[in-house]
Write a structure and sequence with these properties.
The protein is mainly alpha-helical and 208 residues long. The protein has ten helices and six strands; from the N terminus they run H-E-H-E-E-H-H-E-H-H-E-H-H-E-H-H. The longest helix has 18 residues.
Length: 208
């Protein structure tokens, strides 16, 4: 495994999902490039070699559990009871508690495992039976940006209408609703993406 500055990474308040996945594999995120927006990593899948399959699987689990609520993540002074924050990142302390309390069967770097083992395990680890998450615009906007960025990176010619529809489908699949318990509509997402500067970012991708 690579030499990683664990003291730095474990003291961070929040990290990108990709950073978290790489760290669980003992890979230093600083060895991977940042994309043109400056807030996403470009992971060279070939460089992962034998870890490629584990990386994909861990990213899948991390993304699927973004808004899964747990009792042991409540009452820590932060909003919500899941490890995803309102800026579209992973809350480090909550994520480490998740790794400690949920049996994922992941082999972790010894430094990371030792830190997780040192965390106090709450007496209650029961999953709260809530399937839907009601998010304010401030909470779902960063997630829409992330999805839009990923869609542009996979297809730089995709238009704003198709992007908004795909993001709406993703939200529905993850059971993400508005604060009024309604599905977040493509038109609403399109308006936000327009304000975000979608067309400019698409031009930037085409210049790459």
């Amino acid at each position: 495994m690579e030499k990683i500055d664990w003291d730095y990474w474990l003291k961070r308040k929040s990290l990108f999902e990709i950073e978290v996945a790489l760290l669980t594999l003992g890979i230093d995120p600083e060895n991977h490039q940042i994309d043109y927006l400056g807030d996403h990593y470009l992971v060279d899948m070939n460089a992962l070699k034998s870890m490629q399959k584990d990386y994909i699987r861990r990213m899948t689990f991390i993304q699927e559990n973004r808004f899964t609520p747990y009792e042991y993540m409540a009452n820590d002074g932060e909003s919500g009871n899941f490890y995803f924050d309102t800026e579209g990142r992973v809350r480090v302390k909550r994520f480490l508690l998740w790794l400690k309390n949920e049996d994922m069967g992941w082999e972790l770097p010894p430094e990371l495992q030792a830190y997780i083992d040192s965390l106090g395990k709450p007496s209650k680890t029961k999953l709260i039976k809530i399937t839907q998450q009601k998010l304010s615009p401030k909470e779902w906007n960063p997630l829409a940006e992330q999805y839009a960025t990923e869609l542009l990176q996979s297809n730089a010619d995709i238009g704003i209408d198709d992007t908004a529809k795909k993001i709406a489908d993703m939200f529905e699949k993850e059971e993400i609703l508005s604060v009024r318990s309604d599905l977040i509509k493509p038109e609403t997402i399109k308006r936000y993406l327009s304000d975000w500067g979608f067309n400019l970012k698409r031009i930037q991708v085409n210049k790459k």
